[in-house]
């Protein structure tokens, strides 16, 4: 890809940012959350919002575009991937039969990210459903030291792993988005 878009931002007060702080849904006035569970939940919520912000305003073709070759990543692929890993984490904490993969074979989350509005809608629905399902399961286990599933993973470890996964992929989303339309990260 030889043609690169010019860098731009919607922020006017801080032109090197994605959005001005007073319009950033991740910013909150007042004190930070009290306690470890609330702090972990706040970080996860903010990374989830960041992913949504990185995808806002793009059409299906732009979301499915593999804009950082030779990587097969796309913004839509990241949404699908995160839906898949949310489901996978549910499998970590179950004692029963694992849920089937959402998209099939290895890398199908990225390979199946096609420029189709129905595929985009389905990916967001999958992500929201899988996030809500795991959130609900973990809400039943408020003790962060409790160990769950066949592998006996601590709730704290799983929550930190979720934050790490979203944070890493939000970094990827920064680069992917900038290559799609020049919008810079924050």
Automatic annotation (TrEMBL):
Organismal lineage: Bacteria, Bacillati, Actinomycetota, Actinomycetes, Kitasatosporales
Leader peptide range in chain numbering: none
SUPFAM superfamilies assigned: DinB/YfiT-like putative metalloenzymes
Residue segments, region Disordered: 1-39
Transmembrane segments: none
Source organism superkingdom: Bacteria
Family matches, as InterPro entries: DinB/YfiT-like, MST-like
Organism: Kitasatospora cathayae
Protein's name in the database: DinB family protein
Pfam families membership: MST (PF04978)
